[in-house]
Write a structure and sequence with these properties.
Blueprint (H helix, E strand, L loop, with lengths): L2 E2 L7 E5 L2 E4 L4 E8 L8 H15 L6 E13 L10 H10 L3 E13 L27 H19 L4 E4 L2 H12 L10 E3 L4 E3 L2 E8 L12 E3 L11 E3 L12 E8 L3 H18 L4 H19 L5 E12 L2 H17 L9 H9 L15 E4 H5 L15 E4 L6 E4 L13 E5 L6 H14 L3 E6 L5 H4 L6 E5 L21 H15 L7 H17 L6 H10 L4 H4 L9 H8 L20 H4 L3 E5 L7 H17 L9 E5 L2 H5 L2 H14 L4 E7 L9 H8 L1 E6 L7 H7 L3 H8 L12 E7 L2 E7 L3 H7 L4 H13 L2 H11 L1
Parallel strand pairs: 18-23, 18-24, 19-21, 19-22, 20-21, 22-23
Antiparallel strand pairs: 1-8, 2-3, 3-4, 4-6, 4-7, 5-6, 5-13, 8-9, 9-10, 10-14, 11-12, 13-14, 14-15, 16-17, 24-25, 25-26
InterPro entries: Conjugation_ATPase_TraG, F-pilin_assembly_TraC, P-loop_NTPase, P-loop_TraG
Protein name: TraG family conjugative transposon ATPase
Pfam families: P-loop_TraG
């Protein structure tokens, strides 16, 4: 048979749910696999997964064929998943559109053969005519098989690293058509089988296989060293044959086929082989080598009571549009095998056809004894590929994968709290590693997806990207000797005076005049009574100074009128401490305003408080944070349904003073009741004092970003309880700031999940995020000319 047309030779008789009844009498249970992300697994993870596979498969009925199939296809990135509305979104969408990458699909098949016998002749034509009586209903034998397989799959899924789900009829048909159509898209075609080649449509096919014990070297393991990311002081691991997976970067299929035979039969067979070789080992060194290998396998099997003898076959089917490219791919695959000390077999002519056609799931029971190696199940399972591409969430912040820099969406908000209970985040990186650049990237995308931002900035890093949204942002800048325009006492009418508002005001006052004392319930009630009395007595122009003067005027009879015991409110102490903030007091300028300016921020979705000039004054910084807090409470937190983020940039400068740290902790407590998150940016985790307040902040921070740090990560690992694999990931960070695809790498941990991501951006986005240097000055100069940041960026990038 030299030509096959699938429509004339249908391999499938019937499909019921995920059960295929094949035309050769086989019954196949089909699953699709969801594997962990590449580079996310540690040495122990690989061992655990290997153990899970062994436990799951060892008890399957004798005669079962297990076929794991990993299909890798070259694709172009479509950008469909990326947002495409704003200036920077459009630039990102276009930048990545059409980028080449590898798509990976993993399938797992369990095959019950018609007669349970796995002793085929050398070549089996899978498309030969079959006698009529093919089972199409679930008899007891099949039901028992289905139950065994379900138990195995449940065991694998319970390992929590992998998930195999039933593959439905539509998916099975799509796979079948794709396989026999040679993965040609847009047209149906025939399979041409010549002695010298296999062609399907435009694609030329070839194969390499491991079909004998003699192919293997000294040993196989569940994982090996990843040379690309390993250095002198740490080892980064990958699966044993991962080099034949995603990183091969070619169109190919890896087929791992296991025949679960009767253990005793194959032990006898190996014993017989040893006996024969012993007789002939004097006749040549090759026989000695073979004897050694088989004796080694037997010894392992006899030493391990759990050993399950199986026959196995691994092949790689690969293809290309150009026949001449096949040689390059062949040598690439052989090189990968050589690194594993494995010598693959290169099938020709009839054998090549046999391998390619019988690597389809309905036919994978067709291999003969000549095509199979005999070994222990544990040994064979080292040849399973246990990872896949980076996975995108349906929505999220765009980062890039580590293989092709393809956009990956990561849901760091986690609306349903599947991965994290608190969505607060922290960015750690030394100066010059791109902290502000990363923060700009995260915040800009949040903002464009409808999240409200409040940035408390001591470095001036955010006004540039804010200017891309002229109607939606405001910058409140502190200048020495001037106020911020926030009056916490301001009310537009008496309806504003809710119990919550009085509560907030009383907290604000206590923070000002008794920041080092614990406030009792009696004191809190007293202040709220005085506040209500003030608002009832004075109808307009409310302010801190007005409140102070009101208490001063009425100090003789105030406590008696409101039935407050002097122990609960010390009028003299209050007037003395608060005198600093009113009249000609040292900090009176902070509260001078009587008209409140918070209406300016009420309808803005991007609010930047620039406190650059205040960073070294403990008192002013502390008051500023309290004022900002009161403004946020009255405007942004009024609507609890609205998503919001508060970012503290240059956070360390704000942490030098204890009362500031406690002020910040308040935000962490309050944000729990809101639909919000808090972000902090630090050069090093050592900048967080080692005390209970810091511990509370870190406990409530469950999304971690760390950029490259040449001083190491020991403190980060210690304070955040990171695993040894997290540390290996951190150490493997490498930036590439030259060449056409510049990127930085970063470690991202969301709850328990961690991996290394890249950040590559188009030139327009790069220009928007720049915060200093000559290029930045050039953009600001262009902006000052026509007051349009988008225009300035377009003009700047057109030159570069």
């Amino acid at each position: 048979m030299n030509k096959i047309n699938l429509s004339a030779y249908q391999p499938i008789v019937d499909i019921q749910d995920n059960i295929v009844f094949a035309n050769n009498g086989n019954v196949v249970l089909c699953y699709t696999g969801n594997l962990p992300e590449i580079y996310s697994l540690s040495e122990k993870d690989f061992e655990d997964m290997h153990g899970a596979w062994f436990q799951a498969l060892k008890s399957l009925p004798v005669g079962t064929v297990v076929h794991k199939q990993d299909i890798y296809l070259k694709k172009s990135y479509s950008s469909e998943q990326l947002p495409n509305k704003t200036f920077l979104e459009k630039a990102t969408h276009e930048h990545f559109k059409g980028r080449g990458h590898i798509e990976h699909k993993c399938y797992l098949f369990f095959i019950l053969t018609k007669n349970k016998a796995l002793n085929n002749s050398k070549y089996v034509n899978p498309f030969r005519k079959i006698s009529k009586g093919i089972v199409q209903e679930l008899d007891d034998n099949i039901k028992s098989f289905v139950n065994s397989v379900s138990d195995s799959v449940s065991f694998i899924n319970n390992s929590r690293k992998m998930a195999f789900l039933p593959l439905k009829a539509e998916g099975i048909q799509k796979l079948t058509n794709g396989y026999f159509n040679g993965f040609n898209e847009g047209f149906d075609t025939d399979i041409l089988l010549d002695k010298k080649s296999v062609n399907i449509g435009e694609n030329h096919f070839d194969a390499l296989a491991i079909n004998s014990e003699l192919c293997f070297g000294e040993s196989v393991q569940s994982s090996k060293t990843n040379e690309k990311f390993t250095s002198d002081d740490f080892v980064f691991h990958q699966g044993f044959i991962d080099g034949l997976g995603l990183t091969l970067n070619e169109n190919h299929i890896v087929n791992q086929i296991l025949y679960l035979d009767d253990k005793q039969k194959w032990r006898k067979l190996l014993d017989k082989k040893v006996e024969e070789l012993n007789k002939s080992s004097n006749f040549g060194s090759q026989n000695k080598v073979v004897l050694g290998k088989i004796q080694h396998i037997l010894d392992q099997i006899n030493a391990d009571d759990n050993a399950r003898i199986i026959r196995g076959h691994l092949n790689i089917v690969y293809w290309s549009k150009e026949a001449k490219d096949l040689d390059k791919i062949t040598s690439k695959i052989k090189t990968e095998f050589k690194e594993l000390d494995i010598i693959p077999y290169y099938p020709r002519g009839e054998e090549r056809k046999n391998y390619i056609l019988n690597s389809y799931c309905c036919f994978s029971s067709n291999f003969s004894n000549n095509d199979l190696y005999v070994t222990d199940l544990k040994h064979a399972l080292c040849l399973f590929i246990n990872n896949t591409n980076y996975k995108s969430d349906t929505t999220g912040i765009i980062f890039n994968d580590r293989e092709h820099n393809i956009p990956v969406l990561k849901d760091v908000w986690d609306e349903r709290k599947k991965r994290i209970k608190a969505r607060n985040f922290a960015i750690f990186a030394p100066t010059g590693e791109g902290k502000s650049f990363l923060a700009n990237n995260i915040l800009r995308q949040y903002f464009e997806s409808g999240v409200r931002l409040v940035i408390i900035d001591l470095g001036g890093s955010y006004t540039k990207f804010a200017k891309l949204y002229p109607e939606k942002y405001t910058v409140l800048r502190y200048e020495s000797g001037k106020n911020l325009g926030i009056n916490p006492f301001y009310i537009s009418d008496t309806n504003d005076l809710t119990p919550e508002r009085l509560e907030d005001l009383s907290v604000f006052l206590f923070e000002l005049f008794a920041s080092d004392l614990k406030v009792t319930k009696a004191q809190s009630v007293s202040v709220k009574k005085i506040l209500r009395h003030y608002y009832n007595s004075i109808s307009e122009n409310h302010s801190l100074e007005g409140f102070y003067n009101f208490i001063e005027r009425n100090q003789e009879d105030l406590l008696d009128t409101l039935k407050i015991h002097p122990d609960y409110f010390n009028v003299t102490s209050f007037l003395h401490v608060m005198s600093e903030y009113v009249g000609d007091g040292l900090y009176s300028f902070l509260f001078e305003v009587s008209e409140d300016q918070t209406y300016k921020i009420e309808d803005k979705r991007l609010i930047v408080f620039e406190l650059d000039e205040v960073k070294d004054n403990k008192e002013i910084l502390s008051v500023m944070l309290k004022l900002i807090k009161s403004a946020i409470q009255r405007t942004i937190w009024k609507n609890r349904a609205e998503k919001g983020i508060i970012l503290f940039d240059e956070f360390a400068k704000q942490l030098k003073f204890e009362n500031v740290l406690e002020s910040v902790e308040f935000y962490y407590q309050a944000i729990r009741k809101q639909n919000g998150a808090i972000g902090i940016i630090l050069q090093s985790i050592n900048q967080l004092p080692n005390n209970s307040t810091s511990a509370s902040i870190l406990e409530n921070t469950q999304v971690i970003y760390s950029l490259n740090n040449e001083k190491g990560y020991a403190e980060l690992v210690k304070r955040l309880n990171l695993s040894s694999h997290d540390l290996n990931q951190l150490k493997s960070i490498k930036n590439n700031l030259s060449g056409p695809r510049k990127y930085t790498e970063m470690f991202i941990k969301i709850g328990r999940e961690s991996n290394i991501f890249r950040l590559e951006v188009p030139k327009e986005v790069y220009a928007a995020y720049l915060t200093d240097g000559q290029e930045n000055e050039e953009i600001i100069k262009l902006y000052n000319e026509h007051h349009d940041m988008e225009k300035a960026i377009i003009q700047f990038t057109s030159k570069t």
